[in-house]
Amino acid sequence: MSAILTVARTTFRESVRNRTLLAIGLLALAFVASALLLAELALDQRFRVIVDWGTLCVSAFGVGLAILLGVNQVHKEVRRKTLYVVLSRPIARWQYVAGKYLGLSLTLLAEAGALSAALLLLLAADGHAIPSSLGYALMLSLFEMLLVAGFAVFFASFSSPYLSGLFSLGTFVIGRSLPTLSQLIDRVEWPALKAALKGALAILPDLSRFNLSTQAVHDLPIPAEAVWLPLAYGSVYLLLLLVLSAWIFSRRDLT
Amino acid sequence: MNPHPAISIQDLSKTFRLGLLRRRHVALQGLSLEVQPGEIFGFIGPNGAGKTTTIKILVGLLQPDAGQASIFGVDARDHRARARLSYLPEMPDFYDYLRPAEFLMHCGRLSGIPAGSIKARTPEILARVGLDPGERRPLRKFSKGMLQRIGIAQTLLADPDLFIFDEPMSGLDPIGRRWVKDLILELGRAGKTVFFSSHVLAEAEAVCTRVAFLNRGRVIGQGMLSDLLQNHRAPTEILLQGVAARTDPELSRLSRIEPSGPDTLLLIEPGRDPGPALSRISAAAYRILSMQQRHATLEEVFLRALDGEKKTDRSEAAP
Fold first, then answer.
1. Does the CB of B116 have a partner CB in chain A at under 8 Å?
2. Residues of A in contact with B87 (CB under 8 A)
3. Contact A81/A126 with Cβ under 8 angstroms?
4. Does B83 reach chain A within 8 Å, measured CB to CB?
5. Residue of B55, B71, B79, B170 to mutate when probing chain A, most A C-beta within 10 A
6. Which of B56, B89, B110 sits opposite A89 (nearest CB)?
7. What is the pLDDT of residue B298?
8. Does residue B103 sit in the same domain as residue B177?
9. Are the Cβ atoms of A85 and B82 closer than 8 angstroms?
10. Domain assignment of residue B242, yes or no
11. More confident residue, B270 or B243
């Protein structure tokens, strides 16, 4: 456990001290704050505009950061050989993958947490009460980022940075569109193709379950299962991804 | 007394697949060697000989295709084998934003050392490698030489039984190289095993107790340094004043003639009697400035081993 926490702490430190990430974080904060400007155009819909734009910014920057960090963290360590002094010590490779992912998650939670806090402060400053639906929406959005980061680490364990980034982004886009794609596949007439496409969709994560922004914007009630089911589903998915990543990474030659 | 060798390598082979066409590149072919506890072992070979590949297999970064490698009797693929070793990669690079003390804490914790102990030892270790114990700059602001020093500091922290250094002197200035040489000798005196690769033979000669020569993934010679140097005698060198002897046909037949600044150097192969050459020098009244019979350098021994390998290859290739 100590090795995992050590790798996680160093990953977190390296990330939060990185000036590029700091700049991205500040840009994201500026985007969230720009919700106030947009709200000026919305007349009596200020709350909806701030929440809609704010949650979009939190999710977009969070997912982008998850892919960027997830893909880069491992590749950078291999390319620059910083990994060598880690893996030449008595730690197993799965511990390294677990530590790396934990550090990455802490970084994402810090950045996305700060953005979410900024959004809540903005709403409060604009004189709105904070609905619980927004809290749930932000929580699931953060969890979605962790899942996307898991995909990025998984793809990075066996492919190049560009391909890993592309695969991760593709998974996010398809995962978010899964219900629509499922309906489209229902219209396919060839049974073999239909079964193959259905099979492919079954493997991919249904990220639409993590998107509660509509409920938050309209302050609609959110049933408990709409929160815990995605959390449970995502946790199992994430665990599988990390086990697979560790297995692949432990067989990899670090040339 | 440890019953196992510090390093044992048996018939190690490794092939890489390179490029889009997955071209085969044989890095190691049936490499075997043993390093006993307390030895300072030089792993010598030209660039691309397979030194780094062997080291990476020893420290668990690469998996061999065939053969076995073990550290103090534990299979090198098992992460527990690395509990008794420290490794310095070639031209090391470390985390950009960590400070030296943070980096040592990171490495020490991964080696299983308690945080309190690392904190207490950090100033002493930093001072030992010539860095300011109060240094607060992040590692990205360190020069190449300073990175090498912090790299060595992280190997000293766990006080392991085996040190594996990959080209520890590359990229260092003469003072840095001297410091690394002194450190290796100091570790040897403390009873540690040091296994290091190098293609700079003069430096290896200054510190090793035993060496292995590697070329194209194979060991082409190994032994105690003192034996190798004594068994391979260098040519007898006679330095003659001026250039007159350079065109002497009889001397050309008896020795190899090389210019040496304004003078002329005669090299008489080991085992050949220098008498006839000396008689000719006397008859021609050339003036002898110096004459010496020295031991071969490690570089000469290595080059002869390479020549021997080439001859073997040619004779094997001949129909």
1. no
2. 84-85, 88
3. no
4. yes
5. B79
6. B110
7. 82
8. yes
9. no
10. yes
11. B243
Can you tell me the mean pLDDT for B189-218?
A: 90
B252 and B117 in a common domain: no
pLDDT confidence of residue B317: 63
Q: Are B39 and B193 in contact (CB under 8 A)?
A: yes
- Per-window interface: B 133-172 vs A, CB < 8 A: 138, 151, 154
- Asked if A88's CB is within 8 angstroms of B60's CB, the reply is yes
Block residue for tokens 């840009």 = A27
Dump pLDDT digits (tens) for B2-28: 679 999 999 999 999 888 778 888 999
In angstroms, what separates the C-alpha of A92 from chain B's closest C-alpha? 6
- Closest CB to B80 among A18, A88, A90: A90
What rounded mean pLDDT belongs to chain B?
89
Interface test with A, best of B95, B117, B139, B167 (most A CBs within 10 A): B95
Domain that holds residue B165: 7-230
Under an 8 A CB cutoff, do B98 and A84 touch? no
Give yes or no: residues B108 and B239 share one domain: no
Which residues in chain B are contacts of A14 at CB distance < 8 A? 95-98
Indicate if B79 and B140 belong to the same structural domain: yes
Here the ipTM equals: 0.83
User: pLDDT averaged over chain A?
Assistant: 90
As a whole number of angstroms, the distance between CA B212 and CA B218 comes to: 10
**Residue A131: predicted pLDDT:** 86
CATH number, domain containing residue B225 = 3.40.50.300
Give the residue carrying structure tokens 């270790």.
B125
Is residue B132 in a domain? yes
Number of domains in chain B: 2
The whole-model pTM stands at 0.84
Does the pLDDT value for residue B319 go beyond 60?
no
Q: Please report which confidence band the pLDDT of residue A19 belongs to, taking 50, 70 and 90 as the band edges.
A: confident
* Interface residues on A facing B, Cβ-Cβ cutoff 8 A: 2-3, 6-7, 9-10, 13-14, 17-18, 80-82, 84-93, 251, 253-255
Q: Is the CB of A88 less than 8 angstroms away from the CB of B62?
A: no
Same domain, B226 and B250: no
Do B98 and A10 make contact, defined as CB atoms within 8 angstroms?
Answer: yes
Distance CA B97, CA A107 (A): 15
Are residue B146 and residue B50 in the same domain, yes or no? yes
Predicted pLDDT of residue A46? 85
